Amino acid sequence: MSERAAPFHCPYCGDEDLRPHETGHGAWECAACNRAFQLKFLGLLARGLQRHDSSGGGDRT
Q1: What is the DSSP string of 7-60?
Q2: The predicted structure's pLDDT at residue 60
Q3: What is the DSSP letter of 61?
Q4: How far apart are CA 32 and CA 16, in angstroms?
Q5: Residue 49: its pLDDT value, please?
């Protein structure tokens, strides 16, 4: 099994200097803006992916 993906950028300042935070799983701290944040996967949406094609054409094959 593979490791979970890590964030590439801070959601507040956009900097890339992120480190795991001491509070545990999914928590990260940004050294640039001195903020800590937590990421959590909520699940898959029941409706799935819906594509709205504005060209008015039919199905593409």
Answers
A1: PSS-TTT--S-EEE-TT-TTEEEETTTTEEEE-------TT------TT-----
A2: 55
A3: -
A4: 8
A5: 67
Phi and psi for 28 in degrees, rounded to 5?
Answer: -135, 155
Burial letters for 38-58: b for 16+ Cβ neighbours within 10 Å, e otherwise?
A: eeeeeeeeeeeeeeeeeeeee
- Give the number of C-alpha atoms closer than 13 A to the C-alpha of residue 43, restricted to the C-beta side: 3
Mean pLDDT per segment of 10 residues, for the chain of length 61 residues?
76 95 91 94 78 63 54
- Give the whole-angstrom CA distance, residue 32 versus residue 47: 38
How many residues belong to the chain? 61
